[in-house]
Specification:
Spore Coat Polysaccharide Biosynthesis Protein SpsA, Chain A; two-stranded antiparallel ribbon; 7 helices; 26% helix; globular
């Protein structure tokens, strides 16, 4: 049960909170960092080896999390010399198993990571991309046209979209589609696979998730953390780690 967490970014969207510390170490609820919560969830679901792909302030994260003893798992680190994006860091990691989970370091979700990896492995997928169907607010007024006449108008309507949530599984054959030593991100990989007509499998997820990328998201998480921890099914789990 192996997971790789992409944690090498500079957290530009979350400034000013990330001015002095990396995004995975920003505190939530005044007790845990966002990456601590992810690690606790993964450890509780049977993941025993987690690699942090780091760059920006990587040594600070290694000092904070250590070898994973606190969580009862093995944690190791893969350092980038340059910023490689959200997929290219996989090429630097040694002894990758046949199937593994990859996720961003700023995702709060109640997804069952173990179930996702088992689904991916049992179906012999090259890729399993987790998506969620959400309502997104249009930035503009939307019109319906017929014969160059406006039939209907909606001011900034909600539009249903399937979006990637930043939690995915891969078979190690995926490395054949990832270049080494230059920036290559998740979107580059998907476009590459589509171009080569490779099957990209979907895992639909209807539970809770939040990409904590913007200051307003971070503020909301902190203001509502007691409710949020119950929604994430981690309130009792976090209390256990508080006692330790």
């Amino acid at each position: 049960m192996r997971a790789i967490i992409i944690a090498g970014g500079k957290g530009r969207r979350l400034k000013p909170y990330t001015t002095a510390i990396p995004k995975p170490l920003v505190p939530i609820g005044n007790k845990f960092t966002i990456l601590e919560i992810i690690l606790i969830q993964l450890a509780n679901q049977g993941f025993n080896h987690i690699t942090l792909a780091v760059n920006h302030m990587g040594k600070l994260m290694e000092s904070f999390f250590g070898n994973g003893k606190k969580f009862g798992i093995k944690i190791d680190y893969s350092y980038e010399k340059n910023e490689l994006g959200t997929i290219a860091p996989l090429r630097n990691i040694k002894k990758i198993p046949d199937n593994f989970l990859v996720m961003n370091s700023d995702i709060l979700t109640n997804i069952n990571f173990e179930l996702l990896l088992k689904y991916h492995s049992s179906n012999n997928n090259l890729t399993t991309i987790t998506t969620s169907n959400i309502n997104m607010r249009s930035e503009f007024g939307v019109v319906n046209l017929k014969n160059n006449k406006i039939l209907n108008f909606q001011e900034k309507p909600l539009i249903k979209q399937n979006v990637c949530i930043g939690v995915n599984c891969f078979n190690k054959k995926i490395l054949n589609y990832i270049p080494k030593n230059y920036k290559f991100s998740f979107d580059d990989l998907l476009l590459q696979l589509i171009k080569k007509k490779k099957t990209i499998n979907n895992f639909s997820f209807n539970g809770f998730w939040l990409d904590m990328g913007k200051p307003e998201d971070y503020d909301k998480v902190n203001n509502e953390f007691s409710k949020l921890s119950k929604k994430l099914n981690i309130d009792k789990l976090l209390k256990k780690y508080e006692q330790n």
